[in-house]
Amino acid sequence: MPQRIVIVGSGFAGFWAALSARRLISLNPEAAEVDVSVIAPDANLVMRPRLYEPNPANMSAPVDDVYRACGVRFIYGIVDTIRTADHEIEMVNRAGVRSAIPYDKLILAAGSRVVHPNIPGLSDYAFSVDQMEDAVKLDRHLQSLASKPPSKARNTVVVCGGGFTGIEVAAELPARLRAILGDEEDFRVITVERNQDIGPDLGSGPRPHIVKALEDLKVESKLGTSVISLDAEGVTLSSGERIETLTAIWTAGVAATPLTTQVSDKRDNFGRLHVDQDLRVASAKDVFAAGDAASAAADDSGHYAKMSCQHAGPLGKIAGHNAAAELLNVPAIPYSQPVYRVCLDLGSAGAMVGGGWDVNVQYSGLTAKPMKQFINTTLIYPPKANAADAFAVADPAFDGSDPAINHPTLNRFLLENGIPI
User: Fold this and answer.
1) Are residues 223 and 270 in the same domain?
2) pLDDT digits (tens, 9 = 90+) for 196-224
3) Structural domain tally of the chain?
């Protein structure tokens, strides 16, 4: 009877965990048979980093052919129960049928969700770009604005949160609104951030570039205040100001999948599971965590993996490799990702690329835009449905850490476009 690696989630972490595990298994054909299964609602890799863009319904790539080519079994379903003591999970399939699936090794890679605090009207009136269905709902709403009579509320969009996602959403909105409402319409895009600075988690280096880009785009920033209530016709701020709007977009804060609570009580402030260098959960030795479910040390200097695809892919590769390695009795690979880079889209004002944990700006404006577009449209997409190609990219040693650094395809692109590496 084969041993089983079960992966919960088919986002960037789950996808690469599956391919990495199968890669190692393929390199050890003489070892005991190991089955790799992925459980998720559908076999599409959602390009979550792109959901702030227009036409989000197209921001996914089917991966069932890749899974089949690599020998991964995909199971359509939603996991809602994990019993670590019994080494099994429970899932519900698309027909509503519940079943239990045993595992020898479990990789929890079920991602994260935007946090909805208990703010009056938030659940009823706010849009988001968190998941595919959220972004599609927002896109349809924005398109519908053209059929409504002009008004201050129709022509105003409030972005609730001035962090990474909020900035990308706000910077993209002027072009989206112009395409929908026309150049002759006056519209406002307003970012509300409770901190005194825009992009508080990005540090001081990128801030002048972000501020200038938003000013050039005529995006307003209301800092040091927060949204305290929402209704069908506007939002109210903690400063007492009321902004009339039909479109409030919530981008403030994320939390790991609630499934982490069924694995261990040792979690960080985001609900992520504390893991060791092998990405194993200490209190559940046969459970690994990856992506947004894992609180993993990225280096020896106190830096931890961010909740982003930049870290999800490498985390998935290491978790998949190590889960299989233990069953195959081969050495594990400790997770390490000391190189960090930020690539922030600034709409028609360009982009900003910074390196290091303190984000030293390396490229900005229109010079940085092709890098962001290349990463968004090419680099993060899955490989072809060919085992040899997929396994090559799934190697945990591939690219070292950040896929935007020392990547041969990206470097060739930069050289061809005259952008210094």
Assistant:
1) no
2) 999 999 999 999 999 999 999 999 999 99
3) 2
Last residue of a domain, which of 339, 355, 383?
339
Q: What is the signed CA dihedral for 380, 67, 388, 50, rounded to 10 degrees?
A: -10
418 Cβ contact list (under 8 Å, min separation 6)? none
- CATH classification at residue 174: 3.50.50.60
**Element holding 219 (H helix, E strand):** strand 219-223
**CA 129 to chain CA mean position, Å:** 11
> d(Cα 386, Cα 393) in Å, to the nearest integer?
11
Antiparallel, parallel or unpaired: β 34-40 and 73-76: parallel
pTM: 0.94
Q: Which helix (H) or strand (E) holds 193?
A: strand 188-193
Q: What is the DSSP string of 310-346?
A: HHHHHHHHHHHHHHHHHHHT-----------EEEEE-
Angle subtended at Cα 239 by Cα 233 and Cα 241, rounded to the nearest 5 degrees: 35
Whether residues 152 and 268 fall in one domain: no
Residue 333 and residue 319: Cα distance in Å, rounded? 9
Structure tokens at 283: 């209190």
* Inter-CA distances, 270 with 254, 258, 295, 317, 369, Å: 7, 10, 9, 22, 31
- Assess if residue 105 is contained within a domain: yes
